[in-house]
C-alpha cells in the first residue's frame, strides 16, 4: 500500500494528510503545552493545525509524540514573546508560577515546561529542542535560578514543589472546545475564529481511520524504512536484537492479558485505569523506531526499561511475585517500584471501594472471612456479579478491609506486608517506613478520621523521620510531604466534630497534640496553640485561628535547617558532643564547680554548664558520699521525695569509673519533651551483660527547663536480688486482700503489686489479676492470662533471679509511668528478662498491658 500525498482526497472526497494526525489525547497535550508557553487558549486550535501540517507524513513506527512536540516547539519559536493571563489556572499561587515561567527567555521557558513542570525525561526534552543533554541542563539550571528569584523562593525543593503543583493545575485545564478542521490554515499570530462548515466531518476522525488501516498492513513489523535491529546471528555482544525486542513485546502483551484476567476485568474496564493506559502508552514509546534505534547497542538498559514496563501493567500481587527471585535491586529501583505499586493500589482501591459501596447492603456486619475476602462470598449467597468478580480476584488487588469502621465495611487499606518480607525491601533503609505510611493512608475522609490519634502519632514520627533524615529527593518523599501537610491541617483545623465536643477540645486530642510536641517542627505550631487553649479552658487559640495551610511546611524547612530550635522554649542552648574515656578519669574537670555548688546548692551556678559536666558533677557527689548535693542536682518531679526522706533512704549508686569504660553525649541525642529538653548519655560498660539494676542508675536523663540549666531527672527505683521470700509473703497477703474483695492501701509498693499478680496467675485467679490492671482497661479472659503466663515466664517464683523497678514523670503529659523487669534463670544458665509496664493511678500502682500481650 502506497502513502497518500499531502492534499490527496480519499474515496469520500475528504482531505487526507497521511499519518500525521495526533491522537485526541496528544492533541490536547499540545494545546496545553502551547498555553503553558504563553499562547492564548482561543489560539491553540489554530496552533495545532499548523503543527499538523508542519510534521508531514510519518511512518507507523516513528516516534509520533516526539515529532509532534518538536514541531510544536518550532512553531512556538516563531512567537517567543507570547504571554497569556493564566485565567484558566484555578489557584493564585499556580498562576504566579505560570507568570514567572512566561517571563523567562524562550529556550529556558520551553525547557522548564517540558522537564520540570510536565515531568518529561531529560532525553525526550533535549530531543524536542534538538539539544544535547548538557545544553539542556544548562538551560534548566539558569531557569531555576531565575524562577527562584522571581517567586522569592529560597529553597530549590520548594521551587520544584511549586512547579509540581503548577503541573497539576495545567492537567486540570479546560480549554475551549475544538472546532478547527485540519484543512483550515490559520496563523497563530492572527488567530481569527474558524468558520467550520456544518457538513464536514472533523479531520481527526478521518485520519484516525487511515492510521488504523495502515497499522493493519504493517502488522508486527517494526519499521518502514531501512533501519532494522540486527538478528541474533548478526548481533555483537550487548546488542539488542530483533528477536529480543519481539520476545519482550510479546511478554508485555501476555503479562497485560494475564493481569486483566486475574483482576477479573473486561478490556473496556481494564483500559479505564490510568496505570494501564500509561503502561500502554509507554510500551508504544519504548518499542518505537527511535527508541529501539537508541538502545540498539545497550540490550541490558532496554531490558531494564521493559522490566519496569511489566511492573506497570502487572497486578499488585504480580508485581510482588516478580521480585521473589529477582536478586539485588538498587535503592532508586526500589523507590520506583514502590511508587508504581502505590499509584496502582490507589486506583484499585477507589475502584474496589466503589463496587463495595454499591453493594454495601450485601456486606455482612461481621464475618471471620474479612481477612480472606475470597471466602467472603460464602457469606453472601446472592452477591451481585460485580461483587463476586471483585472478591474472586481479590488476592491480586493488594488491598485489605479497613474494619475499623463497622458502619462502613467497604473501606479499604493497602496490603504492603508482602513487600515488607522481600529481601530487597529489608535492605532498603527507609522502605518499611514508606510502606507503613501508605498502607493506612488516607487517614481521613469526608466523614472524619479513619485512623485513631494514637496511631497517627506513629505515622507523624515516620513522616518526619523520612522528611528530615531521608537523603534522596524521590517522588515518594514529595508525596509524604503532601500527606504531612494535609494531616497537620486536619488534626488542627479539620472537622469540628473530630476535634471538639460542645466547643471544647476533646481530652484525647489534647493528649495527641502534646504528644506531637516531641518534634520541633510541630512544637513550633502546637506549643503556642496549647498554651492559649489551656488559658481559655481548651476552647480558643488566636494562634490557631491565624494558622495558614503552608505554615507546617515552612516550620519543617526551618527545623531541617536548624533555625527553629532557638525560637522554642529552652531551645537556645548549645550541646557540645564529647566522648570521655573513664580509664584514668578523676573528676578533676568538675572539682572546682563541685566545691562552689556544695556550699550554696544554687542552681544558677549551673547556667551554661554542659550537660556532660553536670552528669560528672552528680557522680562525683556520689563518689564523695554526698547525698545532699546529689539531691539538689535533681530536677523537680512529682516523684521526688523531700530532702529528709531522700537522705534516710539514700544508698550509693554504682561507682561510675569502676563500672563504665566511657561515656558520650552527642548533640543529636537531645529530645524535646513538651517545653523541656532532655538528653540521655550513652555509656559503655566493662561487663558485656550488665544488669538493669547496674546500668539504669548510670544513665539518668538530663533535662533543661530554664536558662540553659541542666539537671538530673529523678527516677524512683527499686531492686530486689533473687527470689525474695519476704516480698513473696507480702505479695500473698495483698493477693488475699483482693481475693476477699478488699482494697489495697494506695501506697502499696510496686514490688508487692507485682508479687500479688504473680500469685494471682499462679492460682489462676483471673478476677484478682484483672483488679491489678489500671482503671479503664477491660478485664481479660482466662485464656489471655494462661497465654500470658506460658509465653512470658511469669508463673512461679523458684527461678526468679531479680526484680527491678524504675518510674519517671518525664513525658509530655507529666504522667507517672514505670517499667518493671523480672529476670528468670533458664536452662544452661540463660536469663530471661520480662518487661511489664506500670502506671501510678489514684488507687496506687497498677499494670498497663498492651493488646499484643
From TrEMBL:
Bilayer-crossing regions: 203-224
Keywords: Coiled coil, Membrane, Transmembrane, Transmembrane helix
Coiled-coil boundaries: 238-269
Stretch list, region Disordered: 1-22
Domain of life: Bacteria
Compositional bias ranges of the Polar residues kind: 12-22
Protein name: RNA polymerase sigma factor 70 region 4 type 2 domain-containing protein
Source organism of the structure: Planococcus maritimus
Organismal lineage: Bacteria, Bacillati, Bacillota, Bacilli, Bacillales
Amino acid at each position: 500500500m502506497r502513502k497518500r500525498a499531502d492534499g490527496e482526497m480519499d474515496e469520500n472526497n475528504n482531505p487526507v494528510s497521511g499519518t500525521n494526525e495526533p491522537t485526541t489525547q496528544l492533541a490536547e497535550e499540545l494545546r496545553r503545552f502551547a498555553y503553558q508557553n504563553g499562547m492564548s487558549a482561543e489560539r491553540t486550535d489554530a496552533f495545532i493545525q499548523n503543527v499538523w501540517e508542519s510534521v508531514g507524513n510519518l511512518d507507523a513506527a516513528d516516534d509520533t509524540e516526539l515529532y509532534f512536540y518538536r514541531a510544536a516547539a518550532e512553531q512556538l519559536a516563531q512567537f517567543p514573546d507570547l504571554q497569556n493571563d493564566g485565567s484558566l489556572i484555578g489557584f493564585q499561587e499556580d498562576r504566579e508560577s505560570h507568570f514567572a515561567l512566561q517571563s523567562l527567555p524562550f529556550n529556558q521557558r520551553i525547557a522548564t515546561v517540558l522537564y520540570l513542570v510536565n515531568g518529561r525525561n531529560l532525553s525526550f526534552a533535549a530531543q524536542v529542542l534538538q539539544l544535547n543533554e548538557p545544553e539542556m541542563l544548562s538551560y534548566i539550571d539558569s531557569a531555576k535560578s531565575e524562577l527562584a528569584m522571581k517567586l522569592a523562593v529560597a529553597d530549590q525543593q520548594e521551587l520544584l514543589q511549586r512547579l509540581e503543583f503548577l503541573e497539576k493545575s495545567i492537567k486540570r485545564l479546560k480549554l475551549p472546545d475544538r472546532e478547527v478542521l485540519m484543512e483550515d490554515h490559520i496563523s497563530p499570530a492572527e488567530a481569527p475564529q474558524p468558520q467550520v462548515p456544518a457538513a464536514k466531518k472533523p479531520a481527526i476522525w478521518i485520519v484516525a481511520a487511515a492510521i488504523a488501516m495502515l497499522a493493519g498492513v504493517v502488522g508486527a513489523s517494526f519499521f518502514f524504512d531501512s533501519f532494522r535491529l540486527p538478528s541474533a546471528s548478526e548481533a555483537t555482544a550487548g546488542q539488542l536484537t530483533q528477536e529480543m525486542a519481539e520476545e519482550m513485546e510479546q511478554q508485555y502483551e501476555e503479562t497485560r492479558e494475564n493481569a486483566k484476567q486475574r483482576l477479573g476485568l473486561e478490556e473496556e474496564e481494564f483500559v479505564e485505569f490510568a496505570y494501564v493506559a500509561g503502561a500502554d502508552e509507554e510500551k508504544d514509546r519504548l518499542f518505537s523506531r527511535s527508541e529501539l534505534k537508541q538502545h540498539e547497542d545497550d540490550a541490558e538498559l532496554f531490558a531494564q526499561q521493559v522490566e519496569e514496563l511489566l511492573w506497570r501493567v502487572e497486578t499488585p500481587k504480580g508485581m510482588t511475585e516478580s521480585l521473589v527471585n529477582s536478586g539485588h535491586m538498587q535503592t532508586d529501583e526500589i523507590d520506583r517500584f514502590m511508587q508504581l505499586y502505590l499509584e496502582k493500589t490507589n486506583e484499585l482501591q477507589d475502584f474496589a471501594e466503589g463496587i463495595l459501596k454499591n453493594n454495601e447492603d450485601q456486606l455482612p456486619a461481621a464475618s471471620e472471612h474479612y481477612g480472606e475476602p475470597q471466602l467472603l462470598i460464602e457469606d453472601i449467597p446472592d452477591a451481585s456479579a460485580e461483587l463476586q468478580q471483585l472478591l474472586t480476584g481479590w488476592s491480586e488487588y493488594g488491598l485489605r478491609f479497613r474494619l475499623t469502621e463497622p458502619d462502613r465495611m467497604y473501606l479499604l487499606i493497602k496490603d504492603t506486608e508482602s513487600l515488607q518480607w522481600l529481601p530487597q525491601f529489608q535492605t532498603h533503609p527507609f522502605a518499611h517506613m514508606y510502606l507503613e505510611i501508605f498502607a493506612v493512608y488516607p487517614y481521613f475522609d469526608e466523614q472524619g478520621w479513619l485512623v485513631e490519634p494514637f496511631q497517627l502519632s506513629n505515622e507523624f514520627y515516620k513522616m518526619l523521620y523520612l522528611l528530615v533524615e531521608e537523603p534522596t529527593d524521590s517522588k515518594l518523599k514529595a508525596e509524604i510531604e503532601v500527606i504531612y501537610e494535609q494531616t497537620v491541617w486536619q488534626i488542627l483545623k479539620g472537622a469540628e466534630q473530630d476535634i471538639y465536643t460542645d466547643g471544647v477540645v476533646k481530652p484525647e486530642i489534647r493528649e495527641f497534640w502534646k504528644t506531637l510536641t516531641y518534634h520541633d517542627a510541630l512544637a513550633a505550631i502546637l506549643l503556642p496553640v496549647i498554651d492559649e487553649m489551656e488559658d481559655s479552658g481548651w476552647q480558643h487559640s488566636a494562634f490557631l485561628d491565624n494558622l495558614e495551610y503552608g505554615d507546617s511546611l515552612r516550620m519543617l524547612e526551618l527545623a531541617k535547617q536548624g533555625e527553629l530550635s532557638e525560637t522554642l522554649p529552652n531551645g537556645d542552648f548549645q550541646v557540645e558532643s564529647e566522648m570521655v574515656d573513664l580509664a584514668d578519669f578523676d573528676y578533676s574537670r568538675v572539682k572546682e564547680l563541685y566545691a562552689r555548688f556544695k556550699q550554696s546548692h544554687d542552681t544558677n551556678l549551673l547556667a551554661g554548664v554542659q550537660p556532660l559536666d553536670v552528669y560528672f558533677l552528680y557522680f562525683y557527689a556520689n563518689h564523695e558520699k554526698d547525698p545532699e548535693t546529689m539531691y539538689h542536682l535533681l530536677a523537680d518531679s512529682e516523684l521526688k521525695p523531700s530532702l529528709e526522706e531522700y537522705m534516710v533512704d539514700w544508698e550509693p549508686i554504682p561507682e561510675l569509673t569502676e563500672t563504665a569504660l566511657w561515656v558520650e553525649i552527642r548533640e543529636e541525642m537531645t529530645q524535646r519533651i513538651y517545653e523541656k529538653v532532655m538528653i540521655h548519655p550513652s555509656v559503655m560498660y566493662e561487663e558485656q551483660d550488665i544488669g538493669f539494676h547496674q546500668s539504669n542508675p548510670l544513665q539518668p536523663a538530663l533535662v533543661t527547663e530554664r536558662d540553659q540549666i541542666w539537671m538530673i531527672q529523678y527516677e524512683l527505683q527499686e531492686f530486689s536480688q533473687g527470689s525474695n521470700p519476704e516480698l513473696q509473703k507480702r505479695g500473698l497477703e495483698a493477693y488475699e486482700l483482693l481475693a476477699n474483695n478488699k482494697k489495697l492501701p494506695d501506697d502499696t509498693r510496686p514490688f508487692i503489686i507485682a508479687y500479688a499478680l504473680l500469685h494471682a496467675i499462679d492460682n489462676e485467679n483471673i478476677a484478682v489479676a484483672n483488679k491489678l490492671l489500671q482503671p479503664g482497661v477491660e478485664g481479660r479472659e482466662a485464656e489471655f492470662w494462661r497465654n500470658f503466663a506460658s509465653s512470658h515466664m511469669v508463673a512461679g517464683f523458684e527461678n526468679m533471679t531479680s526484680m527491678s523497678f524504675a518510674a519517671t514523670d518525664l513525658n509530655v503529659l507529666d504522667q507517672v509511668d514505670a517499667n518493671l523487669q523480672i529476670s528468670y534463670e533458664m536452662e544452661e544458665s540463660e536469663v530471661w528478662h520480662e518487661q511489664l509496664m506500670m502506671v501510678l493511678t489514684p488507687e496506687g500502682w497498677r499494670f498497663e498491658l498492651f493488646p499484643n500481650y
